[in-house]
Amino acid sequence: MKFFSRKAAVASAVALGALTAVPVMAGPASASPTQCSVSFNFSTASSTCLGGTGEHRIVCFYTHHIPGVGTIMGYGPWAPVGGTSSTYCPPDRVTNTFVELR
């Protein structure tokens, strides 16, 4: 019986040592885009971000011209920092516009 408890103690110590020896790996650092702005040109909304890293896109919520249809969500394509994302967005029916980041 004494042999079993010694064996269990050694196995526990080895397992604990293995767990503490595993280095903690940090994920890659990522910063969201910064200095973002929204602009409108006729029926197009656009977003541009000038700093940081990652991607951004414009999101536009607007009311459909047919009553009862409801709100339509327009999404521009994902663009890198320094690029522009644009989508259809009629200015007379906009309910919300913002820049989405990733």
Provide the descriptors you would attach to this structure in a database record.
Secreted protein, Immunoglobulin-like, 4-stranded antiparallel beta sheet, 1 helix, 20% helix, 3-stranded antiparallel beta sheet, 102 residues, 44% strand, alpha+beta, signal
What does this molecule look like?
Keywords: Signal. The protein contains 1 helix and 7 strands. The longest helix is centred in the N-terminal third of the chain and has 20 residues, at 2-21. The chain has one helix at 2-21, and strands at 34-41, 44-51, 55-63, 71-75, 79-80, 84-88, 94-101. Mean pLDDT is 81; it is low at 13-27. The radius of gyration is 27 Å and the shape is elongated. The protein has a domain at 34-101: Immunoglobulin-like (Sandwich), CATH 2.60.40. Strands 3, 4, 5 and 7 form a 4-stranded antiparallel sheet that branches. It has a 3-stranded antiparallel sheet with strand order 1-2-6, with no helix packed on it. It is α+β, with helices and mostly antiparallel strands and 102 residues long.
Tell me the helix content.
10-25%
Major β-sheet annotation: 4 strands, antiparallel
At CATH's second level, what is the architecture of the domain at 34-101? Sandwich
By helix and strand content, what is the structural category?
A: alpha+beta
Q: What fold name goes in the CATH topology slot of the domain at 34-101?
A: Immunoglobulin-like
Round the mean pLDDT to the nearest integer and report it: 81
Distance between the termini: 59 Å
Order of helices and strands: HEEEEEEE
**What's the number of helices?**
1
Q: Strand fraction band?
A: 35-45%
Approximate shape = elongated
How many β-strands, per DSSP? 7
- The CATH C-level name of the domain at 34-101 is Mainly Beta
Radius of gyration: 27 Å
What are the low-pLDDT stretches, counting only 5+ consecutive residues below 50? 13-27
Protein name: Secreted protein
Signal peptide: 1-26
Organism: Actinomadura meridiana
Keywords: Signal
